[in-house]
Write a structure and sequence with these properties.
Blueprint: H1 3-31, H2 38-54, H3 59-68, H4 72-97, H5 106-129, E1 144-147, E2 150-153, H6 154-176, H7 178-188, H8 190-195, H9 200-223, H10 234-247, H11 252-272, H12 278-292, H13 297-306
Antiparallel strand pairs: 1-2
Length: 307
């Protein structure tokens, strides 16, 4: 087993799944919504990036960006995926949060509504684009970097860099802007935030745009290894939700730690006993953590702070 390759794969998987898990945690802690439509948002963003890269009407724009700087063409594809993810998030907010957020049993209603949106959305993508998978062009190139005996491909370096940049921008926005502070207030205490005049519906749009953008970047990064298809978001949704639960639903720090742990688990399992056993070992590890600490990794973090 090449530990360098395992480490690189684990880092890449942690970035991709961590984006989804953080989005799920932010949505739950701020809106009280378990968004099970992330699979549709993921696939919608992937198709948006694919259309940007391949549609004839977009070719003049891509050529113009490339003429300004060779890196701007691939950057445009990434931005298109993020924007389409944000758009899909707003659609989910309009259909599954705004009409029912003040109704009884909102948590269950929200889960049912987002599952319905996911099914309708993926079937609509299947009807429009067909069942054949689409391939995104290479975004980050074919170069390789050697660092401490570990070979980093351009895709891996690009995935890590773009994830860190987007998360840094999102955290900076949440700490400095008024809307970002409103989201943080909702995450801390939604009831108190509404009492002091923070609009729940308006904040919902900002939350779903932010988390949709995270899903959009994850879709573009994962499409570099796999393909874009109507049901491409199903497995990432399951893994993202499992990572969010393992980290402690609502805890961003717990989601990051859980993404790293499960990324290492997936990379080691694939390298030792085979990729077909990844889900078995992942969910066995998740069950072990949740049985040991019902609040997930967030419970361990809280206990460490209290100490």
């Amino acid at each position: 087993m090449d530990f360098g390759i395992v480490a690189v794969n684990a880092l890449t998987l942690a970035c991709i799944y961590g984006l989804l898990a953080i989005g799920i945690s932010i949505t739950w802690s701020s809106l009280g919504l378990i968004n099970l439509a992330f699979g549709f948002m993921f696939a919608f963003a992937g198709y948006g990036a694919w259309l940007t890269a391949t549609h004839p009407n977009m070719q003049p724009v891509m050529e113009w960006l490339t003429s300004l700087h060779p890196a701007l063409g691939p950057f445009g594809i990434v931005i298109a995926g993020i924007l389409c993810g944000g758009l899909a998030g707003n659609l989910v907010c309009l259909a599954a949060f705004i009409p029912i957020h003040d109704k009884p049993n909102f948590i269950m209603r929200g889960m049912i509504a987002t599952v319905a949106i996911d099914l309708i959305g993926t079937q609509s993508l299947l009807w429009y684009f067909g069942p054949r998978a689409k391939a995104l062009p290479e975004i980050f190139g074919h170069e390789q970097l050697e660092f401490g005996g570990i070979v980093l491909t351009a895709n891996t370096a690009g995935a890590v860099a773009s994830t860190l940049i987007l998360l840094a921008l999102a955290l900076a926005w949440m700490k400095t802007s008024r809307r970002g502070l409103e989201i943080r207030a909702m995450m801390m205490n939604p009831h108190a935030a509404s009492i002091v005049g923070i609009g729940v519906r308006r904040t919902g749009f900002y939350v779903m745009t932010l988390t949709g953008g995270l899903a959009g970047l994850a879709a573009v990064l994962l499409a570099q290894t796999y393909y874009v298809s109507p049901f491409a978001g199903f497995t990432p949704l399951i893994k993202g939700l499992a990572i969010a639960l393992c980290g402690g639903l609502g805890s961003v720090a717990g989601a990051v730690i859980a993404a790293v742990i499960l990324g290492i688990n997936e990379a080691v399992t694939a390298a030792t006993i085979g990729g077909q056993y990844v889900l078995i070992t992942q969910f066995a590890l998740i069950i072990f953590i949740i049985v040991l600490k019902p609040r997930g990794i967030a419970g361990i973090l809280d206990r460490a702070r209290e100490a």
